[in-house]
Design brief:
five-stranded parallel β-sheet; 36% helix; elongated
Length: 400
């Protein structure tokens, strides 16, 4: 028997490459047959060490991250028929198994392949070259199957992200020419998976425009699902004619019912743009103040009636702040992911840094899409790379 080399922690990539350190587990209760197999492997010089187990229980104990392939005899003392194969496939689903059969057990060998083995070989009829080829092919096929599995998972993940995106980022129902608007959403840190930021906009029959932009604390599918629930609830409340003053009360009730723990909270800002575009009413739950551009000058909207975050203080109230719009205005509503990044000038970009970026964007661009992209690109440049937190952005101005 060839002396086993030191065990090596292996990744899936290691298992797929037989010229890298690893080991072949020979599961055979007949010492003579086991020795023959080990000698064939030694002559083949696959670059893999060998280790032996004489029973299914012993084989299970010897499985390690370094196990690159299993050579399995079906006639073990503690396993009957294909039971041993099924057990090892379940215990090590990413390790290829080659079944060793007798010369007259072709039917059993084919059944083993159907049950999860990569191949079967008849003991006594294979030489070192044939055994080495079978091991290499088994590892390569396993690698191909793993790549296919990962591809399927990636496709499913993209489909799930698309469903989340449709929930989080619906197209606002704004139809009249009284408004021009654009939205942006960007997952933090370059993640494919969306976070809990959400936004929406609805124009009512009387010309009133309603807008919501919120941020569920945290990242991931749970936060995204909660964000979707809050956005859909907001739209349903608006369509049902619930007064703006009562919106946050209802959203907090939904948050209490749907959140996983009392530590989950949400910031949000709810806007009501009057039909004549003379003013906007804002109700804010711990959310960053929007920015208002008027005649080229950018200022942070003062919110003296700002209320607490949703889900923090029982029986909280949220007051309303009214901002006069007059002529030539642009409103920027955003989540804190846009201002939480680093900045060499301020240590953190902050609202002041975003004001400067917005002033520069308005001076350089006429269309809202370019202004929105300028803001995000400028925040990333100040941060020295992708922003860590999710970014939601809603730009609104009067129509031409």
């Amino acid at each position: 028997m060839r002396k086993a080399e030191p065990k090596h922690e292996m990744t899936n990539a290691d298992v797929a490459a037989p010229n890298r350190p690893g080991e072949i587990l020979v599961v055979e209760d007949d010492a003579g047959d086991a020795l023959l197999v080990e000698e064939l492997l030694y002559v083949a010089d696959l670059g893999l060490s060998t280790t032996r187990a004489s029973s299914l229980s012993e084989a299970t104990e010897q499985l390690t991250p370094a196990t690159a392939c299993i050579l399995l005899d079906l006639g073990l003392p503690d396993a009957a028929g294909l039971d041993g194969l099924r057990h090892l496939v379940a215990a090590a689903p990413r390790v290829p198994v080659i079944v060793l059969t007798g010369l007259a057990d072709r039917v059993l060998g084919e059944a083993a392949v159907s049950a999860g083995a990569q191949d079967y070989l008849a003991k006594g009829s294979v030489d070192g070259e044939g055994l080495a080829r079978a091991v290499r092919y088994a590892i390569e096929r396993q690698r191909g199957q793993e790549a296919a599995r990962q591809l399927v998972q990636a496709v499913l993940l993209r489909a799930e992200n698309a469903r989340l995106e449709r929930g989080l980022l619906p197209r606002p129902r704004i139809f009249s020419r009284s408004f021009r608007w654009v939205t942006r959403y960007q997952p933090g840190g370059g993640r494919a998976l969306l976070g809990g930021d959400f936004l929406d906009g609805v124009e009512l029959p009387d010309g009133t425009l309603r807008i919501i932009l919120g941020d569920v604390a945290g990242h991931g599918p749970d936060e995204a699902a909660l964000g979707i629930a809050l956005r859909v609830a907001w739209r349903a409340l608006v369509f049902a004619g619930v007064p703006p003053a009562d919106i946050f009360d209802h959203l907090e009730g939904l948050l209490d019912a749907e959140r996983r723990s009392d530590a989950d909270f949400v910031t949000a800002v709810d806007l009501v743009v009057l039909p004549d575009l003379s003013a906007v009413e804002l109700r804010t739950a711990g959310h960053p103040s929007p920015l208002l551009v008027r005649d080229g000058s950018v200022r942070e909207v003062a919110l003296p009636s700002r209320g607490p975050l949703l889900g923090v203080i029982p029986d909280a109230t949220w007051g309303v702040d009214t901002v006069i719009l007059e002529d030539d205005w642009l409103l920027a509503v955003f989540s804190d992911g846009l201002i939480e990044g680093r900045s060499s000038e301020h240590g953190r970009l902050g609202t002041a840094g975003l004001q400067a970026l917005l002033a520069d964007a308005v001076a350089r661009h006429d269309d809202l899409g370019s202004i929105a992209d300028h803001l995000i690109a400028g925040a990333e440049a100040a941060n020295g790379g992708l922003l860590v937190d999710d970014v939601a952005l809603f730009l609104l101005t009067a129509g031409a």
